[in-house]
Specification:
Layout lengths: L1 H24 L15 E4 L2 E4 H4 E7 L2 E6 L5 H9 L9 E2 L4 E4 L5 H35 L6 H34 L2
Helix pairs in contact: 1-4, 1-5, 4-5
Keywords: Coiled coil, Cytoplasm, Protein biosynthesis
Organism: Microbacterium salsuginis
Pfam families: RRF
Length: 184
């Protein structure tokens, strides 16, 4: 039973670390990256639809992206959705067939803003990890009557080590993203 609680907590923490890495990928660096538009929702016939389901996204050059919609009638909606993305600072253009997005050069001040944004996202994900730890600890405490206190103590130490390892993984991803953002 203790092993089940720890295994479930570990699996949830793994998913939380992956979500943090994906979230960090949505913050732009100096290069154009299709992952920047991973979470963009386009109002497609009244339904919020992920951009990746409506179009293919290619990066022909270091600072530009070409978005080719599968349905040409969605061009205006795609262009508007990209324009509405916060913290991106791009102005898409469409030529009737594709949407072209040129990424502006990042200033040092803008890079520092992005570092603050990434740190904030990292802290949010660490709070989520601690929430998972708290729930697992509550589940362990519920087993108190069935298992001994020594086993419970060892399980809590394992849980703490598991949490620490996952927080360190988020910190490592955060450091890599910060270095990538500050790289000129």
């Amino acid at each position: 039973m203790i092993a089940d609680v720890l295994a479930e907590a570990g699996a949830r923490m793994d998913r939380a670390v992956e979500a943090a890495k994906e979230d960090f990928a949505t913050v732009r660096t100096g290069r154009a990256n299709p992952q920047l538009f991973q979470k963009v929702l386009v109002d497609y016939y009244g339904t919020p639809t992920p951009l990746a389901q409506l179009a293919s996204i290619n990066s022909p050059e270091a600072r530009s992206l070409i978005i080719t919609p599968y349905d040409k009638s969605a061009l205006k909606a795609i262009e508007q959705a990209i324009r509405d993305v916060p913290n991106l600072g791009v102005n898409p253009t469409n030529d009737g067939n594709i949407v072209r997005v040129t990424m502006p050069e990042l200033t040092q001040e803008r890079r520092k803003e992005y570092v603050k944004l990434v740190r904030s996202k990292g802290e949010d994900h660490k709070v989520h990890l601690r929430g998972i730890r708290r729930k697992a600890k509550d589940d362990l405490d519920a087993l108190k009557s069935e298992v001994g206190e020594d086993e419970l103590g060892r399980a809590e130490k394992e849980l703490d080590a598991l949490t620490r390892a996952h927080v360190d993984a988020i910190d490592d991803a955060l450091k890599r993203k910060e270095a990538e953002l500050l790289e000129v």
